[in-house]
Amino acid sequence: MPEMTTGDDDAGDGIQIDMISAERMDGLRTMEKIRLILDGVHDDNIVILEDGLDPDEESKLIERTMSEINPDGFTGIEIETYPGSDGGDGGFLGRLMGSDDPSKLTVIGPANRIETLHKDETLISTLVTRR
Amino acid sequence: MGLLTELRSSISRATSSLFAGSEPKRIGIYGPPNAGKTTLANRIARDWTGDAVGPESHVPHETRRARRKENVEIKRNGKSVTIDVVDTPGVTTKVDYKEFLEHDIEEDDAVRRSREATEGVAEAMHWLREDVDGVIYVLDSTEDPFTQVNTMLVGIIESQDLPVLIFANKIDLEEASVQRVSNAFPQHETVPLSALEGDNMDEVYDTIAEHFG
Ligand SMILES: Nc1nc2c(ncn2[C@@H]2O[C@H](COP(=O)(O)OP(=O)(O)O)[C@@H](O)[C@H]2O)c(=O)[nH]1
Ligand SMILES: [Mg+2]
Asked: Measured in whole angstroms, how far is the alpha carbon of residue B127 from the centre of its chain?
């Protein structure tokens, strides 16, 4: 639901997108990566990771997210990875890029503001609701 | 072989089989909310021990704490496998207490339920990294298996090198598609079943015994 607020950030009712390079993430420990992501999401930003997280980091991200959910505001995250979702070979892009190093572009946002409209091997369509 | 050596080896054989028998494999039942995890856990527990694990419900997050049924001995074709069945809360990346309100639950209770649900999911994730020996991943075969949570969870399970079975549940429903489930996870064995109706439970137990025995 589009709704104007007296904004507690400089962007007003805009949408801030944090794109984080693989290089930046490479230098961080697991908990530092998770903090960077969740701090962004808590600020209502959309966080895009050039190269996603590994399974262990994903597992800890879910665990951490759960512990930060509270009834007054934060309802968790929406996360989409691309390419993905077909198990084995990382999909069309994964095959193109060689299955050894499938890049995992990952989009993460606040669950109450982001909704995946459509997703397949070649496209993620996401609706971001303004505050 | 001297008498003493013989005695010692027979004792060690006896104790090793004793210990093998007393250390059941801990099998975690994972999957999204409402897939039928508790219904399955209850059916397994009832079939082999006579009593249930916990309440089943159409309200999501009814299972908010991992529940265990220990020492479930499954006998198959002369072989027997003893497992601890761990029914976990459905894994998700979001919980909004307002969703409970739609199920006629009071606000206070909804807030409490959502807090318990988030703690339960965190705990289930932790267990997955540390405390389970094998995983049954339950999916509702009437629903699209290609979700981010399913892909992530199966990826996490694979990265832990845990043996995993995919259970395509609710085959009693007309819209069920087992094919869609096995296509989603071709690298794993998919077993169709109806935990509610008890359909195909023979194959379920055969596969559990083979896989986790
Ligand atoms: N038709 C059908 N419904 C099922 C089956 N298994 C579970 N259910 C129903 O699905 C709902 C959720 O079941 P539950 O076991 O609580 O799911 P959980 O959240 O994964 O533990 C309940 O209403 C169950 O009766 C099944 O095999 N067939
Ligand atoms: Mg349950």
From this structure: 12
Q: ipTM score of the complex?
A: 0.82
Is the bond preceding residue A2 a cis peptide, omega within 30 degrees?
no
What are φ and ψ of residue B131, in 5° steps? -125, 10
Domain boundaries, chain B: 26-212
Residue A53: closest CA among A24, A33, A27, A23: A33
- The domain covering B26-212 belongs, at the CATH homologous superfamily level, to P-loop containing nucleotide triphosphate hydrolases (3.40.50.300)
Which of B94, B115, B187 lies nearest to residue A75, judging by beta carbons?
A: B94
Q: How far apart are CA A78 and CA A76, in angstroms?
A: 7
Contact: B158, A54; criterion CB under 8 Å: no
Cα torsion angle, B164, B130, A31, A115, sign: positive
- Mean pLDDT of all residues in B79-93: 90
